[in-house]
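Request: Not sure, any thoughts?
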Amino acid sequence: MPNVVFHPRKVAIEAEPGLTLLDAARRAGLELESPCNGLGTCKKCRVTVDKPDCVRHRNGERAADEVDGILACTTEIRDADLSVTIPEQVRGRDRVLISGQRVERPINPWVRREWQSSTNRSRIFYGNTLMWQEAGLAPVFGLAVDIGTTTLVVALLDLAEGRELGTVGALNPQARLGHDVLTRIQIASDEAGLTQMHEILVAELRRMTEEVANRAGVDVSGLREIVLSGNTTMLHLAAKVNPRSLGRYPYTPVIRGDISLLATDLGLLGAPGARVYLPPVLDGFVGADIAAGILATGLRNLTGVTLFIDVGTNGEMVLARDGRLIGTSTAAGPAFEGMNITCGMRGMVGAIEKVSISASGIETKTIGGVEAVGLCGSGLVDAVSEMVRNRVVESSGRFAPAAAIPRALGELLIRYEGKPALRLARARSPGEPDIVLTQQDVRQVQLAKGAVRAGIEALLAHEGLTPAMVDRVLLAGSFGAHLQPASLVGIGLLPDELGGRVTAVGNTSRTGAEAMLLDREARTELVATIKDAVTIDLAHAPSFENTFVKALAFPKLERAAA
């Protein structure tokens, strides 16, 4: 069989003819994204090969020569040895948000230890039930885990003392199979796909558990309980429960949370008999991550009107009005994660994260301060907002006529694959493409922001409120932490009135999970809160289609008098 070597790590495997380069890379233990699930549409798995004649497109044709490589998911190995190079931007490391707002709570964990000095023995209780007796001062650790669609965060806590021992973050390996929850639901609707989704997630959680334990200098045998927080789909995949029902109306979850399972049954690490707690979910697309956020921010106890939003591939939001909670979700899509964007990428070193445009040109800032290799979500929102503000893009979303654009900016308008595009940064070296924002990219932002804005409008309408009546906006999640409120208003995702009322609260899915670990009463409170909460189905909300169409438009700016 052909020998395939992957560079720069120089990992070699034998691969039978007909295997795709993507599958070969995964067999070699290498991370290569394919959020379109191998359809060849996202173009995020580009690689280069030393012998183009030794590969072919899966339809039998010769693999097309392209400046920036071929698609690993659609390219098959033939019958000769081959060297494959994975580009730097594919190998980069994501910036994972691990911190978030929290409300101080008493240390009163579900798992507790009683130590008897006279016998030097520890008794470990789950609630009021005695589970173990051990010699000495037995360790009592817990894990708070945020299973995000894009990233994973694992925090190790000493339950006896209520202190954090360490935290690690990583990319959710499921993203290489499908970036959004709908794709993962589709894949996991058959048993083989469910097994694959579950196993790659659990393997990474085990690795992260060992890593954080090693860093803290403790043994995983002292791990007694794990709280898994995440959206409803992620909980199904973690528990290896078929999510098929989430992909069909009325999107009814099998798992509604507030349940405890054995860690060994899920394949997770821990002491013998260690338990896994799954928090309650609001509905099929407003999950335990939002429930945890409600807990972490004390949302139910805030006076006035608060809008809690987690903007990601699935825009989840809750409107709190003096303790009354109304939740909903919108299909924002993967654009804000940098997916389906021509030069899009995740938030890693080299990604453009901030953009400003003036009459004299464009200024950009990258993560790590290095040369730009792509554009992440926050930079995308900045760029489109600045294009709207400078009238490069009209309220309809179309590029403005060249004659209406200042000359300095007009010079940055180029043709990309025959269509208009704005050049944000020049290529790092000859032969590489410029970093651009195309008309189609702007359309993707329109659809994403339109979905979120329409959800906000529907929530406000449900309660008879106007934007001016909202006291505060809490932006949760990694994406929200790096957004500029002015840019959210600039693209029309938020109404003008809310621009100065935005607070980024970070990874509240993780901090909410911590609260459930450290205070047993937090679980009781949250279950009661979720039981009283209301969710609305936007598909059946009055006039939602018209609301969505109106929300697609970018803010219309009045032109200054000549």
Remarks:
- The mean pLDDT is 87.
